[in-house]
Amino acid sequence: MAKVEQFPDQSGKNGITENIKGRGEQENSASVVDQKTKVMPEELRERSGPPVPDDSLLMGRDIDKTSEQGKQSGRGEAQREKEEDGGRGAQPSKEKGGISRLRRFLPGRRDDEKGLSYAEQIDRHRSRIRAYRLFGVVILIIVVLLVALFFSTRRYSRAEITKIRDFVAEEGAVCVNFDGYVLQYGPNGAACADTNGRVKWNITYEMDQPIISMSGDVAAIADYGGTTIYVMNTKKQLYTVSTSLPIHKVSASESGGVAAILDDKSKTWIRLYSKEGKEVAYFIRSMQENGYPMDVAVSPDGKKVCVSSLLMKDAEVISNLSFYNFGKEGQDYDQHLVGNFEYTNEVFPYIRFMGNKACAAASDSRLVVFDTSSVEPQNSFNNMLTEDMQGIFASGGRIALLFTDLTRENLYRLDIYGRNGKKAGSVGFTMVFDDIQISGDRIYINNEQSMQIFTLNGREIFGGGFDRTVKVLIPSWRLGGLAAVTENEIDSIKLR
């Protein structure tokens, strides 16, 4: 539509004179406006079409016609530009390439969304949100890696010890780390407290020789040769089991179940109890056929049992490792016996489940790991030992074997293995120790007056002494934090 400028008439008013009446007067007024219409350049006149009289402002039909003429003129101009570009060849649009795709993810770019539909704008908005989230995740991963690198390479130079609360241990009682709590047991009873000194439970009994088994946050205490088993977790006492035969060995499960080896002269009874204290299974083993039981272990789910027995046969020492399954999978097997392994001239005093899918057994000449993921266990790893083993320590999915360091660089060497039987690391140290604990990726070695902390690869991150006698150390999930039980109190240890 041509641009029309209205000039004031002789009366000083814009537009057409208000008191024009009749057709003749309208024609005269129109002619006046035509004469005063600004003349457009020739090129613009062709593009914009013929001039439109001001009467079109008052007539709807003329507006429609003019609009149609403008559209046709626009299409004609686009056609001419297309023909002109045709000779030079089509030029690719940058907006349709990688730049336009990149712009859709940039914040603040809203001018290119004006011609998009609502659905397309929503799609672009969601794409930007995904990009922001991905960027945030990358930054978070980098921060976590940097923090982990800092603490994994950091070495502490001193330890600050602060008293938390008075804690008087009973005479003759033993204090142990009970899944981050303090467990004290002795001939007259047992008690459990957190690292702030708050007592969780307290029981009394009479025992001549208390024995204990711990797995996760479950503990079983019994009197060797007695007939009562007390089962607790870190929060409360779970149940008590009374037996008709003397107790030789107990093994606690993380599920709350317990297995007990009971002596009966020429044969041995092995009974399995559920987490409610009900007997769920038992089996009998003959001394002549199966040998004398050395150890028993229960899987975390309470369904699998492994028994190590020692048998004298034809002047040879034979060890039996027998696996039982009391779940649905083992119902079709005679006495639920799903596997049996014999070893000549070896003694296996130690067996332990490392989760439901692996069981480790150590003798004086080898470490063997069994795959118990299927019904019938398989021997998945054998590591023959060429040195005399001095001790065995385990926690969670790791087991550590202690040897005398033959290189004489250190007094001892501790080799750590994972569930798959592969060596995870080795630690050499010179401390005469009272206890060795594996907690996460740290090895804690201590006696009453000093402590050393190592990583799995043998790097020492702390070594120092105490100004008081320490009975037990309790590693914390907090980096650089521990608790300690001394003679009369519970202390907090902060490494600096």
The top level CATH class name of the domain at 207-385: Mainly Beta
The portion of residues forming beta strands comes to: 35-45%
Low-confidence stretches: 1-50, 52-67, 69-76, 81-99, 104-109
The CATH topology of the domain at 207-385 comes to: Methylamine Dehydrogenase, Chain H
Number of helices: 5
Strand order of the largest sheet: 1-32-31-30
As a whole number of angstroms, the C-alpha radius of gyration is 44 Å
- The CATH homologous superfamily of the domain at 207-385 is called YVTN repeat-like/Quinoprotein amine dehydrogenase
Estimate the global geometry from the Cα principal axes: globular
Q: Give the mean pLDDT.
A: 81
Count of extended strands: 32
Corresponding CATH architecture of the domain at 207-385: 7 Propeller
How does the helix and strand content classify structurally? alpha+beta
> How would a crystallographer describe the biggest sheet?
4 strands, antiparallel
Q: How helix-rich are the residues, as a percent range?
A: 10-25%
Q: State the separation between the terminal residues, measured CA to CA.
A: 83 Å
Structure explained in plain terms:
It is a single chain. With 496 residues, this protein is α+β, with helices and mostly antiparallel strands. Among the domains are: 22-85, no CATH class; 112-153; 207-385, YVTN repeat-like/Quinoprotein amine dehydrogenase (Methylamine Dehydrogenase, Chain H), CATH 2.130.10. 18% of the residues lie in helices and 42% in strands. It has helices spanning 22-36, 42-48, 60-86, 98-103, 118-153; strands at residues 159-166, 174-178, 181-186, 189-193, 199-204, 210-215, 218-223, 228-233, 237-242, 247-252, 258-264, 267-273, 279-286, 292-298, 304-313, 316-325, 337-344, 350-353, 358-362, 366-371, 378-384, 389-395, 398-404, 412-417, 423-429, 435-439, 442-446, 450-455, 460-465, 470-475, 481-486, 489-495. The protein has a four-stranded antiparallel sheet with strand order 1-32-31-30, with no helix packed on it. The chain has a four-stranded antiparallel sheet with strand order 2-3-4-5, with no helix packed on it. A four-stranded antiparallel sheet has the order 6-7-8-9, with no helix packed on it. The two termini are 83 Å apart. 26% of the residues are buried. The model is unreliable at 1-50, 52-67, 69-76, 81-99 and 104-109 (pLDDT under 50).
